[in-house]
Sequence to fold (344 residues):
Amino acid sequence: MNRTALVADRRYMKHYAGRVHPERPERVAVMIEMAERLGRPDLKFYVPRDAARAELELCHRSDYVAAVEHTATLERANFDPDTHTSPDTWKTATLAAGGVLTAVEAVLAGEAHNAFAIVRPPGHHALANRAMGFCFFNNVAIAAAALIRNHGLARVLIVDWDVHHGNGTQEIFYESPQVLYMSTHQFPFYPGSGTLEEIGAGAGTGYTVNVPMPASFGDDEYLRAFDDLLMPIARQFKPEFILISSGFDCHYRDPLGGMRVTEAGFLAMTRRMKRLAAECCGGRMVAALEGGYDLKALADSGREVIEELGREADEPVALADNGDRVTPIVQRAQYFHQQFWKFD
Ligand SMILES: [Zn+2]
Fold:
């Protein structure tokens, strides 16, 4: 059995984005209640720490960090039409960034093989100088930057299976060959970025991989994209640590997304990442909650991911034998990446 660290804290319920806002405190409550019911003896609960200001500033401009901090003195502030603060947002967002760092540190210290961080607000839309799409600080990007700049790692893989493109994460590492960013997402869709042609720039060219997919794609297409495109690239990259932006809004029940991923699909994607981690980096991986707005889908999918993290890495991976609808997209992605990566 793998030991899994689980970062969980009801203080993540304190950020309040507004009445009828889909990114609501209950998202964290259902995830924590699910995890407490698992009864896994090898699941170790961790209390998150706050991210230090210097850690936030690994990915964000200091004047932007100060602007978010200032909202603690305001009843409400609006960063964009979807992204609102309450007086506790600053503290909660700092704790969200710190929660992923807590998970990373538990794995680096060898206290756990892998980890899941149940955090909110989510992070992958947050830019260096801007909040957007329910996100304030880019939790996963900050963890990746900390792994490289504070812990001396050379290569970190970020896999983002949230239904939305993680434009913030992509932009932060767009010119870096040290962070390979791979995203599966609905397209065209919010936030509008994430085309096949976006492959990175400068020294980072080839280190951004997007799989934009039309609504209605599900497990078969996702797994085919992993098997034929993402896994081959990731194996050549040989990450020293794997981070997953684990949004559950590509689930078929999600009210915002239009994709059809099931619990079995999340399990199968997690198994692939776990296999990759076992091959490349001693199993070191951390998944962090991003989106996901149907409470039942969140709990059911989160359970599959957390249970799978606890299983041995040598469980068989059944390769996708369906999903032909994604093949033209995979082939075009391979075309854009053929200078940088080999495909069988
Ligand atoms: Zn999302």
